[in-house]
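Quick question about two entries, pasted in order.
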Amino acid sequence: MIAKIKHLLQNNLRNIERIKMIKWSLYGLVALILYLTMLSNIIPESLDVSLYSRADHDIASPITIENKTATEDERSKAAQIDAKYVYRDQVSQSQFDKLNDLFSGIDKVKKNEPEKKTTQEKVSELKSIISVSMSDELSEDTLKPLVEAEPSQISLIKELTLSEVMEVMTDRVSIDNLEQSKSDVEDRLSLTSLPTDQKKAMITVAQQSIVPNYFLDPEQTEQSRQEAIEAVQPVMIREGQIIVEEGAMINREVMEQLRLAGLLDEGFDAVPYVGLALLVLLLTGYLYYFFQDVKSRVRSSNTNLLILVLIYFSTLMVLKLSSLLQGIEVPGIAYIVPAAVGSMLIKMLFNEQLAIASSILFGVCAGVFFNGEISGPMNASLGFYVLMSSLSGVFFLGKRNHRSNILKAGLLVSLINMVAVAILLMLKNGQYSGIELSYHFVFAFLSGFLSSMLTLGLMPFFEAGFRIISTTRLIELSNPNHPLLRKILVETPGTYHHSVMVANLSEAACESIGANGLLARVGAYYHDIGKTKRPHFFIENQMNMENPHDKISPHLSKTIIVSHASDGAEMLRKHRLPKEIVDIAEQHHGTTLLKYFYYKASEQANQPVSEKEFRYPGPKAQTKEAAVVGIADCIEAAVRSMTKPNPETIESLVRKIITERLEDGQFDECDLSLKELDIVAKTILETLNGIFHSRIEYPTEIKKKVTS
């Protein structure tokens, strides 16, 4: 009854491990931790300032934003350009042609029997000859002196008029300077010695011939205006730009810049909080999908996910508290942050892939935590530093995470930290004194040392508090000087040898299918610890003695044999060994049938006996490691009992044992596939063939055989 209750409780605990609601709650807890730890770093800074007051300190912009009002002002100024004009020489040529037509008409009128025509008739004839525009522009009073003038006078008038008009019209004549040009022509022509009426007519003709030839070009003017507007660069308030210096007056322009930078208290602004929420969702989603793809205990165990959450919380708090040191005015104090502690813990307690993924998360969060000395939301330099430090902690721990390697890894992390600081300082190209550089590098070196110290200090908490199994813990448990292993060796040497053989088979088989080979090896060392309670009831410990089972009933023998699994699990729990080791000891037989005693009981009763009475109570193997140890345990015992093992008989036996266990449903509760079972069989065969290889007879042995 007690065994059934215990079995029921264990099943309930295993079910809790896989409840999705708990898993989603833990992911929600990760998101909440990320949000709350970064919240104080993204709350917008608000200033209590008033117009025309004095700034009590330098105020820098936390963001880069366009000052649209200033940009529009600059564009309005740029649009105020001079109008664009175009010179049209065809207008000048047209006026020259009109003048030539006029004087040609005068000559023609004078040659057509001038003595028979009156002046009025000559003027009328002239008006009919010249162009309509010229005829309309020149009155009869202007034309009369010209048709009455002597040929020499006409020649002089023509020469002077054409010369003046040509001189003026070859230059740019706009509407604005038209009257001035006509006045200048009048002044020059007034100096001639012609009669007054002819001089006046000449001036009138010249002035009428002067027209604008330099006109406003609307298209070019508009194009130039647009080009000037487009050439104006947006007026930006740059991140980190000093908006107002200490002691300067805050005028309306400065107030507008402070408003644009979001530094004025203008009510609640939800945008930064929404942005942080999106960042947290992105990071949490990234972790979730990564955990689903990577092979780790986090995917299937809520307890392991909780451990990871606690590591995240601890690491983020360390980063957060370290960021508060920025308030101390010591150069490079921020580099003392023990950045690698989280990644080193995850590498030792889980695996390298999870540690690398978590390093990226720590780098992003550190960029937000350490934004106190910059105006933007993220400090890229410290984010890079934390990322490099975390990754170096992962890589330098190596494959076998001995505790002694943690200090060595911490030293190497310190060196990488110093390199990262050197990179950052050189990229900034700043001028640093020798003392400042010393501070930077000393703090970077201390960071790696502190990371290793914190890792060593926190490891026992996670291992003891959750009884989790780490590579370091497994290596410690595999030490032959462990009290329980010494107990097996001293009290049950046969069982000890059997356990070592099972360990060799299990480790190779687990590694071949991607399972934890080291866990399988250590679990195999302890899987038969329960036999130390009644050692002589197990055949491997019966040396030169009678088999006690020959004198007791099959039911009692069954009880003794079956109890070694539960007894062993109880002993392991009492000594606080990790749950994974306890599970292997308890599950390695599953619910298999003790065939020998079952058939013996059936023979004595002269009727079939219920199989349930002669089966192990279970549970069945829940993990690949427990299943493989169970297979190796059965195979090793069976092969050891063979008189003349050879590769063929061994293979037949191995295949038979695995097939029987498969058909008996012993692998129903673990995720071993048929393909993996085949790989396990092949690997175990390779190992066994290496152990039971054909022995070569040496000459001395051959000689003994001949003489005998």
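Here is the second entry:
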Amino acid sequence: MTVGVREQPRGADSPRPRPGARPGLVGWLTGLAVLAGVGYRLWLLLHAAPPTNSDEATMGLAALHIARGEGFPVWFYGQQYMGTLEAYLAAPVFALAGGPSLLGLRLPTLALYALFLLLAWRLTLRLTGDRWFGLLMVALLALGSDRIVKNQLIAGGGYPEMNAAGAALALLAVDLATGRPGRRSAAAGRPGRRLARWGAWGFLAGLMLWVDPLVLPYVAATGAVLVVFCRRELWGAAGALLGVAAVLGAAPLLLHSLLTGRNPLHAVLAASGANASAGWPDRLHGGLVLGPGLGMGFCAPGQCATWQLWWALALPLLLAIAAATAWRALRIPGPAGTAAVGPDAVSPRVAAAARLALVLAAVATLGAYTVSSSAGLTPVESSRYLSCLLISLPALLWPVWTVARHGLRPAAIGRRGVGSTLARSVAVVLLAVTLGTAAHATWRAAEAVSATQAAEARHTELVGTLRQLGVRHVRAGYWTCNRLTFASAEQVVCAVVDDTLRPGFDRYPAYRREVDSAVAPAWVAPAGSPLAEVLDERQRVTPGSLDLITIEGWRIYLPR
């Protein structure tokens, strides 16, 4: 297959500044884009957006228990998978702040996003050497639709960490493959620094195995790059250090499995919908039509308009073109040296191999999601499983950027002229539409902030009212309970009930035991909910059994 994308030498059009040189226009613009991305998300956090939920509150409660020294959970409460790294990151913030808060819980996730943005920029430069393309990647990743900011900021388990870890794994793999022994390259660094990179790669790989297996395609793909370029080194001290570091990173998972005899893989398969059933038409629609637009930040909150589904058509083409161009660059024999000068020089073959690895990881991620029942049963919410695709954006859009700047190779069209001009125009339009669609989705997400802030204010009033009433124990629905307990710093303890008032799923069983031992727990329900209707019916059937207190958005039922 011949693909007519011109592979420009790294650095040919964007020379690197000398060490210590003042940053040029592209450097200042990149810095502004980074500040805009972080600033936008900080503004969201200060306005209680994106909206929180009881799952995030569960992670907050774990952080509270860690900060108090009351427990050190390995897994997200109520399940045997998804590590609690976010809770351990937030615990020091709670300890320093003197108590839990939603902002304190999310500050580490904001830091993880900033780290991802910088790593993605650095990775782009290493793979392409084009600082203007690096600016484009930073600008695109600075935008944030509803689904994107939820993945990046909500401390619900795994998602804020995965992108930063995946980008770091890819960057470390490129550094190690470029600076392998026997090559004269400034990237090789000192032997001690090189061993540290091997250890860092192994530790991150093991850590992600504990935190969330969704990033494993990127662990496998970047690991394959190391095997191809550094296989001799892996038989020595570097491989041993990598193995030890990986075991250390996955230590919580391994120790828990050894002590309990439980296999976390079974829990992961159950959570993915392996025990449920969904038809293939629904899976394909959710995984290949709705999923890419929602999961990669091109859709409005909770829905994809028909015109926003264009990305579902573009993504397979981009994957195919990116894979073909990377494979072609990998197969072309070339000099042993690098294609650019300076400390960031990367072998063209290493860069091509890394881009191909990122494309294959994206294909594996998209395929695994599509074949799961989650894609067919809950496509809007489960599109978060595609969050790692953002790591592959530099590899996906690099061929488009190359055509937009340089046109097609003459061999691909027979001659320069109309064909090359048309291709450049199509590439420019594609990049512009990509940025425009993501910007529109970001604007729509920002529009919803006022409603989210108002809902959080009503929840704060609910917590304050319960405290004023002296209510210590309540029963409520799943999406109310742990959020209420966390917001009150466990001054109000809640046990879950379903819409028929029967016991529900309590992620932290100690709360149910405490509520069951209380004399007369209250009931709390959102206004207009099925639970509120059942409790209102009880009032009508047995008048005088409950005292009703209403505040905006909520109904509190106090037993007499």
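Reply: Confidence is low (pLDDT under 50) at residues 1-21, 184-189, 335-343. The radius of gyration is 26 Å. Hope that helps.
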